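Weekly sync notes, structure subgroup
Attendees: PM, AL, DS (notes)

Item 1: joint prediction request from the bench team. They want all four components modeled as one assembly rather than separately. Inputs as received:
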Amino acid sequence: MSVTLRDIARLSGVNISTVSRALTGSYGVRRQTREKVLAVAERLRYRPNRVARGLATGRSHTFGLIISDIRNPFFAEVARGVEDTASAAGYDIVLCNSDLDPAKQMRYVRSLLEKRVDGLLMNSVAGLTRHQQEELAGSGVPVVLLNVPPGARTFSTVSADNFQGGFRAGRYLIELGHRTIAHLTGPRQHGNLTERARGFLKAAQSSDKQVAPTVIHGQHTFQGAYEMTRKLLARHSKVTAIFAANDAMAFGAIRAIVEAGLSIPEDLSLIGFDNVELSSIIRPPLTTIHQPKYEMGQAAAEILLRLAGRRQGQVPEHRMLGVDLVERQSCRAV
Amino acid sequence: MSVTLRDIARLSGVNISTVSRALTGSYGVRRQTREKVLAVAERLRYRPNRVARGLATGRSHTFGLIISDIRNPFFAEVARGVEDTASAAGYDIVLCNSDLDPAKQMRYVRSLLEKRVDGLLMNSVAGLTRHQQEELAGSGVPVVLLNVPPGARTFSTVSADNFQGGFRAGRYLIELGHRTIAHLTGPRQHGNLTERARGFLKAAQSSDKQVAPTVIHGQHTFQGAYEMTRKLLARHSKVTAIFAANDAMAFGAIRAIVEAGLSIPEDLSLIGFDNVELSSIIRPPLTTIHQPKYEMGQAAAEILLRLAGRRQGQVPEHRMLGVDLVERQSCRAV
DNA sequence: CTGAAAGCGCTAACAG
DNA sequence: CTGTTAGCGCTTTCAG
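Output from the run, pasted for the record:
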């Protein structure tokens, strides 16, 4: 079928192992010999078989990326960061969408391990049983978890500083003069979001002003926030500002606010979290906490690249990236 | 390192090839033997090495997906369609972002071929030289092209019916009573968009009304359409409706229209193309031509799956998917 | 500097 | 039904 080292060896009159050395650039081949080999390889349009190489060396130069859904712009951005840096180092990434379903996650994990990937990147293992987590940990391949606060786990982690983000959002609103502030968030005990809420509350309580924060739990989606906001407005609360736990929720809030005949920021200030592309396009442009999504992908890939080198002794690495408040036009001073 | 067939063979007292047969389920193993083997495999937590299997069988059960950028929601949707159907058939997909740069595209192609992928999915080869295209074609792996109109090429293709979409958009506006209609599109000679423009023009000329279509070329982006629309409004044209070649452009048009103090659809009707998620969220909800993005990904994967089976004789397959007009609130009768 | 040889882990005839 | 025997294409000692 295709051209192999053997073919080159035969045609250039040297041994196959010499060809291998000449081609992979490892020292120990006479310049003259190397050039002859290279010429023959070129002429035959030789293409190394990386599967065979992988079997011989034990490394596939591939990472697995298991996220909930690539259609989520957050993950698309992260994925791009991962792919760019992995690719620059000669690594490929195989994409898996788990929908956060533990069964699917494990299927992908096993399948990837069978393909002998050199590293795994996942966005959550919260749904896995203790047993499954151990299986993962025991696999021997480095794993980096996304959106998981640094911990003494056996896995590496990459996350944004969610606490700090929540804190900054809260402090910003308070400095603007708001005192009655609602925070729209997801269910209790949702790692990331819980951190944001904690940060927000911390800002409220550490302020020297009298601020009254309320945390409203619900679905952390456009629809969920839409409903929470409707209810909030219906009960004529004294809230003057809303902090949405993510941009999608902020958009849901905008919808409800506009439908109620109110306007932003005149009647109500609003701040989001994530800084998705849409937040700058929407009217009014949304003030929000920027999460360095692409950079998180990069960071994760870098960790994997570093860990994929060593054979054993995986010292997990934790990286927490800073967030920025990007000020647009959805908040005003009162 | 890890458990191999050999280990199982030794511990269960049979030959390695019997183990292989028992495990891969091919007939020809006594029930009793199979069960014993399976038990040992289970006990040892055996995990097949798919790299080794790939080397032996010549198939990697992997497809390469080379798109311009996964952050583009269109491709994210397509990618999800590809991944879901490939995954269901036991295939993985490796994700590559080319930014439509021919050099990058070729690097990915070569790298994927070296990994012996069983199929390639690309969104454009327009930028490749004739020579490069031949290299691709000569590689022997099935290739399916996305967003490329069916042709007598050596590659399979999957696309939406762009001509029909343009036609439907035009006809819809005409039936609503519009006579002076502008079509905002990209540069001349842009495969997809050109088809949409052709369909639009066809609708105008095949109508029994007197309609005056104008096609405006520019950048096919939010910004590009924003500028085109500003100019259009500035010259006080008699245009009562705009057909934007894609939704992003429609959003750009909305921005310009709103800034000019006009409203949609009262002063101007607007129709887009793609039906991205945002088009239903934006105010007013955008009437647009729906492109079956997920299904295009599915279709592409199905073709690859079919072709990946055969060793030779790749009969390229072409699939053009229908589009739908989704009527929302950005157009009105005049 | 180069050749010989032994695998990497699995599949696939081909005999029994 | 099961064992034997070759590989798949490449890397990697170990000699020379």
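Discussion: The longest strand of chain B covers residues 62-67.
Action: AL to compare against the crosslinking data before next sync.
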